[in-house]
Specification:
Blueprint (H helix, E strand, L loop, with lengths): L2 E10 L17 E9 L4 E6 L17 H16 L7 H11 L4 H19 L3 H4 L7 E8 L4 H13 L4 E5 L4 H14 L4 E5 L7 H14 L3 E3 L5 H10 L4 E3 L6 H10 L4 E4 L1 H4 L2 H13 L4 E3 L6 H13 L7 E2 L29 E2 L2 E3 L12 H6 L6
Parallel strand pairs: 4-5, 4-11, 5-6, 6-7, 7-8, 8-9, 9-10
Antiparallel strand pairs: 1-2, 2-3, 4-13, 12-13
């Protein structure tokens, strides 16, 4: 089933509120959507969520935008993918890597579309292409962005009231504030899984170790990317105060091996986008499983396409046992939650994702497991000119 056409275009969804984190200056909601078509008329959908001001640890990667992703897909990557069979996902990744170094956000959009079309061709969900389910639902966490302490506490407790059992609290700018907020949430929600995401904000080892001890005493269960460089990550991890989750430090399989070699993380946060798609992310998950490292699947608050891809991946990977930050994608007026997983007031699928007891339920229809609402997609299409 050969690929005959591949197009990319930008969209922007309406956000429920501002969601920020340390180092992020743009608001969420901007995406690049890929539409791939085969010779038999099957359509595969992919997505990238590029952020120009977010990337790897200590500024090593990232910096992609909607405009750069569009250019790379249209001018560089699409020409080397068109003509391949949709099942040749590894060959497509090799071809893209030969055509362009880096640019993982551009690559992930094509990779997701390939897998969606391949699954539809076979009449199977993507999780079966990845080896089959190891779980029938995925635990999800709600992200509480940088906002006033009062607003953050209200957002967190509202998500818990919706049935969410895990929270990711953005911090890293002021450790005193972070400690107060964690303590306040823990006081009101004693059973929730609670992690602080510093986005490298504590910077160096000594400050990071001190922050970890204070966060542990305040009631945190883990801390995500407390510091920037590998040496500092190793020192903080080996202090043993709290489990350390590597996010900006863990983009691909090479990073994962370096983290293991340096003892620089207890857990990994896998992004399809950081690894350039299912092909690269599966390698990170394999290393984690081999080394008994727990993982979550996270991202940059994707639309329904990227969220469905994350759910499909999580259903199939044994190492993915931690709750990840997944939007619960739903059309306007149909969201199952007031706060939890509710980042956009509308999305581009026809039916809301189903949730139960802090989990997103399996997506079992062919491909991504969702149906795209092309009228909504057209409504949110942008013109970047």
């Amino acid at each position: 089933m050969k690929i005959t056409a591949l197009d990319a275009f930008p969209i922007r969804l309406p956000a429920r509120r501002d969601f920020k984190w340390a180092g992020l200056r743009e608001n969420l909601g901007g995406f690049v959507v890929v539409r791939l078509e085969t010779e038999d008329g099957i359509v595969g959908w992919g997505e990238a969520t590029p952020l120009p001001d977010w990337g790897g640890a200590a500024g090593r990667r990232g910096g992609e935008t909607q405009a750069t992703v569009l250019t790379m897909i249209r001018d560089v990557l699409a020409p080397v993918v068109i003509g391949l069979d949709v099942s040749q996902t590894t060959q497509a990744r090799l071809a893209m890597d030969r055509a362009a170094i880096g640019n993982s956000y551009a690559k992930v959009a094509i990779d997701i579309a390939l897998h969606d079309a391949w699954g539809k061709t076979l009449g199977q969900p993507i999780h079966r292409l990845l080896g089959g389910q190891v779980r029938d639902r995925v635990a999800w966490a709600h992200m509480v962005g940088l906002m006033s302490e009062t607003e953050a506490l209200d957002e967190a407790l509202g998500a818990v009231a919706d049935g969410c059992t895990a929270l990711q609290i953005k911090g890293g700018l002021d450790v005193d504030r972070d400690v107060r907020l964690i303590a306040a949430i823990r006081s009101e929600a004693p059973d929730v899984f609670l992690r602080l995401d510093a986005n490298q904000g504590y910077r160096a080892a000594r400050a990071g170790i001190d922050a970890m001890r204070r966060l542990r005493d305040a009631g945190a269960d883990a801390c995500e990317q407390p510091v920037a460089d590998m040496r500092s990550m190793a020192a903080v991890t080996q202090s043993g105060a709290l489990p350390v989750i590597a996010d900006e430090s863990c983009w691909d399989a090479v990073d994962a091996m370096d983290l293991v070699a340096h003892g620089a993380a207890d857990w990994f946060s896998i992004y399809l986008a950081k690894a350039g798609g299912f092909v690269g992310a599966s390698k990170v998950a394999a290393i984690a499983e081999t080394m008994n490292i727990r993982c979550d699947v996270n991202g940059s608050i994707e639309s329904a396409i990227g969220t469905a891809a994350n759910v499909q991946f999580s259903l199939a990977m044994p190492a993915v046992s931690l709750p990840g930050v997944y939007p619960v994608s739903a059309p306007a007026g149909q969201h199952p939650c007031k706060i939890a997983g509710h980042y956009y007031t509308d999305d581009i699928l026809t039916e809301p994702m189903a949730v139960e007891a802090g989990h997103i339920l399996s997506l079992d229809a062919p491909g991504l497991g969702i149906e795209i609402d092309e009228a909504r997609l057209a409504r949110y299409r942008q013109d970047l000119a």
